[in-house]
Amino acid sequence: MEVSKTRSRDTQKGAQFRPWTIGISGASGTIYARRLVELVLNAVPDFPLDIVVTEAALRVMREEDGLPVSIGRLSLEQLIYPTSLPTNSSVELIDNEISDERSLVNTEFNENKVARTATGKAPTLRVANWGKNVRFHSNRNIGASIASGSYLTAGMVILPCSMKTLAGVAHGYSDNLLQRAADVTLKEGRRLIMVPRETPFSEIHLENMLRLTRAGVRIVPAMPGFYQQPTSIMDLVDTVVSRVIDQMDQAQLALGLPALGLDVHKRWDEIVEDRKALGDR
Predict the structure, then answer these.
(1) pTM of the model
(2) 205-209 long-range Cβ contacts below 8 angstroms, 24+ apart
(3) Residues facing 21 on adjacent strands
(4) What are the pLDDT digits (tens) for 204-229?
(5) How far is the C-alpha of 181 from the C-alpha of 116, rounded, in Å?
């Protein structure tokens, strides 16, 4: 009997994960996306991620976070380690060339290249394959892999999600790669997680979110909790990002894939136990 030469798509990336698409749109709070990417890669260094960033999001990164990013070039190091060198691993965001699809050239981090992370703290020790399966896509490249349902992913996260992007996805209007990738995620029945960042919401915003919820989208508003007694802005960021990771884990387990299992901060049951312990003293 002839032995099949095919292999599982889930193992082609060198890890037990399907790719996740990360869409970053032009709402306030791009630091949520930056922190998510950082945490995922810290947990699984070769985790496959496809990242698409809108031009408006790049402007938000420049104005809110002071990142030296531009429409033409963006690197993983710039996204997470904004003060780090080198810049030679940047991936040029072009419209239709094959180089737009290539993996980032890995850069080893040592004491000479260590810089602050999105949290403002020194990054943890990296392994050689850190970030090797991260790919950036031009938002104009409608022919990218993530624009096709035949490209198998576990799902997609859009954070922060602007009201323009929310409206486009809610009504099946795809005029850029980010919206097309979201539309593909929906039509293929995969997990789509959207993190709207706006206040207050208009009736139109709420109707769009209801429409998406009925279509199976997980709406995770950027509404941080305070019961963990946060002491920094990053503590607040982590309360939102941790909920996003929980939603990703649900999708992973539903596909029979391992969960990330990240406990970014203490959960409520742990907090209750801590308070009981203090009360017993």
Answers:
(1) 0.79
(2) 205/163, 205/166, 208/163, 208/166, 208/167, 208/170, 208/171, 209/166, 209/170
(3) 50, 156
(4) 999 999 999 999 999 999 999 898 88
(5) 31
